[in-house]
Specification:
The protein contains 9 helices and 7 strands, in the order E-H-E-H-E-H-H-E-H-E-H-E-H-H-H-E. With about 270 residues, the chain is an alpha/beta fold. The protein has a 7-stranded parallel sheet with strand order 3-2-1-4-5-6-7, with helices on both faces. The model has no long low-confidence stretch (mean pLDDT about 95). The structure holds NADP nicotinamide-adenine-dinucleotide phosphate.
C-alpha cells in the first residue's frame, strides 16, 4: 500500500450504509463494525437472500447499537431482471420513511459473492448455465446494484464504494477459473468507475483468507489438489484470519487517503 496520510472523517459522518451479502461472513462483520463506528442516526440497509439470517443479524446488531436504523431487504444479486434493480432503494426509502437529507455520506459494500463451480478445471466449463450463474452473481448483479445505488444516492456529496475483492482477482488458482475471472472483472469495473468519477471513493479490498463458509468451501470443494492443500495447510497452521481482524484493517484503510480505485490487500 502506498504511503497514505490519515483522513479520519469517514467514521465521523452520519451515513447510510448498504451491505449486500450481510447475512453472514465478512458482510455480517462489516455491518456490525460499521454500526458501532458510525455516529448515532446512521442507517444500515442489509441485503441478502436469506431473510431469516438477515433478521438474526439485525437483532444481534440492533441490541448493541439501538441508536442506528436497520432495514433488511431480501435481494438476490444473481437474479438479473431489470425490475429487481431499478428503484430498489427508492422503494426502501419510501417503506421505511428514510429521508436522504439526514445523511452526510452514503456507502455501499459489495460483499455478496460465490465461488461458483470449483470442482472443475477451466477446460471443463461446458455448462452454459453454470458459467452464466457465476458471472450473474459476481459481476453483472454487482454492477447493476452499484448503478442503482449511485442513482438513488446521487444527492449525497460523499459516496464511498467498497468492493470485497480477492487475491484471486490478480492471481490465478487452479480449478477456480470462474471465481478468479469474475473477481478480476469486478475489480476492473470498479477501477474504471473510479477513473470516470473522481468525486467517488472506490476501494477494492482483498480481505485475506477469512474464517467463513466460503473459506470452508475452498478447503473442501477445490478440485485441484494443490489449491485444496494450500487452504487446508493454511487452516491447520492457524493462518486463517478472523473476519474481525480483516475488517479492522479495512476500517484503518478507509481512514486514509487511499487512491480511489486501488486494489489493496490485507497483507499490503
Ligand atoms: N472468506 C474469504 O477468505 C474471502 C477471501 C477473499 C475474498 N472474499 C470475498 O469476500 C466476500 C464475502 O465472502 P464470505 O467469505 O463472507 O462469503 P460467505 O460466507 O459465503 O457469504 C457470502 C455472502 O454473500 C451473500 N450472497 C451470496 N450469493 C448471493 C446472491 N445471489 N444475492 C445476494 N447475496 C448473496 C450471502 O447471503 P445469502 O446466502 O443470504 O444470499 C452471504 O451473506 C465475497 O465477495 C468473497 O469473494 C472472501
Amino acid at each position: 500500500m502506498q504511503a497514505a496520510k490519515k483522513v479520519d472523517d469517514f467514521f465521523h459522518c452520519k451515513t447510510c450504509v448498504v451491505v449486500c451479502g450481510a447475512s453472514r461472513g465478512l458482510g455480517e462483520c462489516i455491518s456490525l463494525t460499521f454500526a458501532r463506528k458510525f455516529p448515532a442516526g446512521s442507517a444500515l440497509i442489509l441485503l441478502g437472500r436469506d431473510v431469516k439470517a438477515l433478521e438474526d443479524v439485525k437483532s444481534k446488531i440492533s441490541a448493541e447499537c439501538p441508536h442506528q436504523l436497520f432495514v433488511i431487504q431480501k435481494f438476490d444479486q444473481g437474479n438479473i431482471r431489470q425490475e429487481n434493480f431499478e428503484n430498489l432503494f427508492e422503494g426502501i426509502f419510501q417503506v421505511h420513511k428514510i429521508s436522504l437529507s439526514s445523511f452526510e455520506q452514503a456507502v455501499i459494500v459489495h460483499s455478496a459473492g460465490t465461488l461458483g463451480d470449483i470442482t472443475k478445471y477451466a477446460k471443463e466449463m461446458t455448462d452454459a448455465e453454470t458459467v452464466k450463474r457465476s458471472f450473474d452473481v459476481n459481476v453483472t448483479g454487482a454492477i447493476l446494484l452499484n448503478s442503482t445505488f449511485l442513482k438513488a444516492f446521487n444527492d449525497i456529496l460523499k459516496r464511498v464504494i467498497i468492493n470485497l475483492s480477492s487475491l484471486a482477482a490478480v492471481q490465478p488458482f487452479k480449478s477456480w477459473s470462474l471465481y478468479c475471472s469474475g473477481k478480476s472483472a469486478r475489480d476492473m469495473f470498479f477501477q474504471t468507475l473510479a477513473l470516470e468519477e473522481p468525486s467517488l471513493r472506490v476501494l477494492n479490498y482483498a480481505p485475506g483468507p477469512c474464517d467463513t463458509d466460503m473459506q470452508k468451501d475452498c478447503r473442501e470443494k477445490s478440485r485441484a489438489p494443490d489449491t485444496k492443500k494450500m487452504f487446508i495447510d493454511a487452516f491447520n497452521s492457524g493462518s486463517i484470519l478472523s473476519c474481525q481482524t480483516s475488517i479492522d484493517k479495512l476500517c484503518q484503510i478507509l481512514m486514509t487517503n487511499f487512491k480511489s480505485g486501488a486494489h489493496i490487500d490485507f497483507y499490503d
